[in-house]
Design goal:
The chain is mostly helical. It contains 13 helices and two strands.
Length: about 325
């Protein structure tokens, strides 16, 4: 099974293949850097609209990166190294500038920024860090996708990552939930923030009452598997158009629930479903393969049970309750 879009991605030369993703990266970076400073009043509706707009642009960027660059291993590796270097440099710069700013603020050498958070220069550095992290994760996933030798392996991979992510996030004793509770700063370092539209300009005019410049965070794993699935979809000639629509619709639904309810939700079940469900008819298994998948599914259930039991034991031992 192939599609015109798939064929066009496979036939592009390296230079033209990279141009589309670069433009999307520039668009996402510009939006992330500017959104808090737009003259838009802070309101739950505008927060939701702005967050969804940003999420849409970032999803399109990630999909383009995975689909267009995933077929060129050398281009992926070079871009991956560049993104890693940029992420390390921007993270170091952010820490350095933040430490200097807080030191001067404590010494009374400067006044606090009008938005009551960090100055615009630090937000812009953070924007560069976010884009470098997203690009690194997506391209890392595209490179990792080469372990899938056959298209039908995508279904068990999707089910596995979705279940593990759901248990890790939703179960209070799971690894992701524990990290969010015990070391949120580390989690935020390796997560991309969702900017709050108009946050800085609103806070400046109301005495700094807006809760912050970021509405929430998206984990690196979500972007890694976006790159994984879309690079694989192109390589195997699967239904790229339907998968793109499915992944975007599912991810935006999850993001709307997060922004409205304010709860932590696992992103991978939505991403995996959006990518894999449109291609279910392309996955064919022999009876022996189906049996192996069933056994693998049992091991996943047992693995998740171990995570739950270990989490309960750890929380009980630390006096946090079951």
């Amino acid at each position: 099974m192939s599609s015109p879009l798939h064929a066009s991605y496979q036939q592009e030369r390296a230079g033209s293949r990279a141009m589309g993703p670069i433009l999307w990266v520039v668009a996402a970076l510009s939006l992330r850097a500017c959104m808090p400073y737009l003259p838009v009043p802070a309101h739950p509706v505008t927060d939701l609209a702005g967050g969804m707009l940003y999420m849409l642009v970032v999803l399109l960027m990630a999909i383009e990166l995975g689909a267009r660059l995933g077929a060129d291993k050398r281009l992926v590796v070079y871009s991956l190294l560049a993104a890693a270097a940029l992420f390390a440099a921007s993270t170091a710069a952010s820490e350095l500038f933040a430490a200097e700013y807080m030191s001067k603020l404590a010494a009374g050498e400067i006044a606090g920024s009008p938005e009551g958070r960090l100055p615009a220069s630090l937000w812009i550095i953070g924007s560069v860090k976010d884009m470098a992290l997203i690009v690194f994760a997506v391209l890392g996933g595209a490179l990792l996708s080469r372990i899938a030798r056959e298209a039908k392996l995508l279904l068990p991979i999707a089910v596995t990552v979705a279940v593990v992510d759901a248990v890790g996030v939703l179960y209070q004793g799971g690894p992701t939930a524990q990290m969010l509770e015990r070391n949120p700063q580390l989690v935020q370092t390796f997560a991309a923030s969702i900017p709050a539209i108009g946050a800085a300009s609103t806070a400046a005019s109301t005495g700094g009452v807006h809760p912050g410049l970021a509405l929430g965070f998206i984990g690196i794993g979500d972007f890694l598997f976006l790159g994984f699935f879309f690079a694989a979809l192109v390589r195997f000639g699967l239904n790229l158009e339907a998968s793109r629509l499915g992944a975007i619709a599912a991810s935006l639904t999850a993001m709307a629930l997060v922004l409205v309810a304010g709860a932590h939700l696992p992103g991978l079940p939505f991403i995996a479903a959006g990518c894999v469900v449109p291609n279910l008819k392309s996955f064919r298994y022999t009876r022996q393969e189906a049996l192996a998948l069933a056994v693998g599914g049992l091991f996943i259930i047992l693995f998740c049970a171990v995570i739950v039991l270990f989490g309960q034991a750890t929380r009980t031992a630390s006096g946090e309750g079951p």
